[in-house]
């Protein structure tokens, strides 16, 4: 069994993908080809924002936004403690200080109450200029933007939505990547909408920010490529990736997003009442199910459980084994001192199960049965 079955997806989409790739190769328009602009327009429309700026990957997307906002030394940015490293890494790479905020144990996302506390704490200490909040849509579910947007507005903080895992999700019909002052996503192959390599995008309604990002992503270009009015980076989405993404976006909208929601529902049916804590989707929210992550009972030997499942050819993953504040890269910095007990407990208990749009009901039942059998064996 595949954790995320990109091979089957390719077999299903093969005629269209192969044709799209052949077209790019024939045109030899490998950089900034027509497919890139066409994809940006489609993505902006799908998400419901004015501008989409594609770039080389989801990490660059975060960095470019921080760059556009002029975030650097002396600034602090609040980041959830339970996320992929890039959410905080990019803040530190910009020269600013990431400070970590604990999450909600049910949704895995930034806890608005803890965010309020952290803002008060950082402001009263006065060591940093608090500039922004990065909120992450972990495992496919949007963070609590109705509350987080209000908090950021009230405190004069910029809000960056890291939607790398959330693309396709929504809150009361408003799509992921439309929240905050800018939002980013990743097209890493295993994300909800993935390409055949690295890729990323930024979304914003701000015209000035859009212009600045387009300049920063292409060596700080001015009126043209060889007129360089500021320092930037080289971060573009390849035409080949844009062509693949157009085909994948069709499938994503037509049936893949519905399929993962069905798969998650099947898991819910078979695993409910089993003693596992199942993922919770908040009222009015829709998840794009980047991951299906359960929490194991406290006395489970997780390594043994994974090994038993591996023997039965069921791959599982641990997203994430370590809180951000405990990462060695932040050792000795103020972020390392963050107090995040919920994240610590989650890191010890989480297990992500295979989930993708090409899973059958039988496959989810097999995973559930094997998981419950292995759970008994691994109870300490
Ligand atoms: C994957 C991911 C990123 C980085 O995306 P890349 O395209 O791999 O650079 C950033 N944030 C989160 C939450 C992610 O899951």
TrEMBL record:
Protein name: DegT/DnrJ/EryC1/StrS family aminotransferase
Family per similarity comment: Belongs to the DegT/DnrJ/EryC1 family.
GO process annotations (BP): polysaccharide biosynthetic process
Native species: Anaerofilum hominis
Keywords linked to the UniProt accession: Aminotransferase, Pyridoxal phosphate, Transferase
Residue numbers bearing the N6-(pyridoxal phosphate)lysine modification: 191
Residues at the catalytic site: 191
Transmembrane regions: none
Phylogenetic placement of the source organism: Bacteria, Bacillati, Bacillota, Clostridia, Eubacteriales
MF-aspect GO terms: pyridoxal phosphate binding; transaminase activity
Pfam families: DegT_DnrJ_EryC1
CDD domains in UniProt: AHBA_syn (cd00616)
PANTHER family: TRANSAMINASE, UDP-2-ACETAMIDO-2-DEOXY-3-OXO-D-GLUCURONATE AMINOTRANSFERASE
Keyword Cytoplasm: no
Domain of life: Bacteria
KW Transferase (keyword) present: yes
């Amino acid at each position: 069994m595949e954790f995320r079955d990109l091979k089957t997806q390719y077999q299903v989409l093969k005629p269209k993908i192969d044709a799209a790739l052949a077209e790019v190769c024939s045109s030899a328009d490998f950089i900034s080809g027509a497919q890139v602009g066409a994809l940006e327009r489609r993505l902006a429309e799908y998400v419901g924002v004015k501008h989409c700026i594609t770039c080389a990957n989801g990490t660059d997307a975060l960095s470019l936004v921080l760059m556009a906002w002029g975030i650097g030394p002396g600034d602090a940015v609040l980041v959830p403690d339970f996320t992929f490293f890039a959410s905080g890494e990019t803040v530190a790479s910009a020269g600013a200080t990431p400070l970590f905020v604990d999450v909600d144990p049910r949704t895995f996302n930034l806890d608005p109450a803890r965010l309020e506390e952290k803002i008060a704490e950082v402001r009263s200490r006065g060591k940093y200029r608090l500039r922004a909040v990065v909120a992450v849509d972990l495992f496919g579910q949007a963070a609590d933007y109705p509350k987080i947007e209000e908090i950021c507005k009230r405190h004069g903080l910029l809000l960056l939505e890291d939607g790398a895992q959330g693309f396709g999700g929504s809150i009361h019909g408003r799509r992921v990547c439309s929240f905050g002052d800018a939002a980013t996503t990743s097209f890493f192959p295993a994300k909800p909408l993935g390409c055949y390599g690295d890729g990323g995008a930024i979304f914003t309604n701000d015209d000035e920010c859009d212009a600045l990002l387009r300049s920063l992503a292409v060596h700080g270009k001015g009126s043209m490529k060889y007129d360089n009015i500021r320092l930037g980076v080289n971060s573009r989405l390849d035409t080949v990736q844009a062509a693949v993404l157009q085909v994948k976006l069709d499938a994503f909208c037509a049936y893949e997003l519905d399929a993962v929601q069905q798969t998650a529902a099947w898991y819910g049916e078979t695993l409910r009442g089993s003693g596992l804590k199942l993922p919770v989707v908040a009222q009015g929210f829709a998840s794009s199910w980047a991951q299906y992550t359960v929490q194991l009972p406290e006395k489970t030997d997780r390594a043994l459980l994974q090994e038993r499942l591996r023997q039965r050819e069921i791959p599982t993953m641990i997203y994430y084994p370590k809180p951000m504040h405990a990462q060695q890269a932040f050792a000795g910095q103020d972020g390392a001192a963050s107090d995040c007990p919920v994240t610590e407990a989650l890191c010890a208990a989480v297990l992500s199960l295979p989930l993708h749009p090409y899973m059958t009901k039988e496959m989810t039942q097999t995973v559930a049965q094997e998981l419950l059998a292995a759970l008994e064996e691994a109870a300490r």
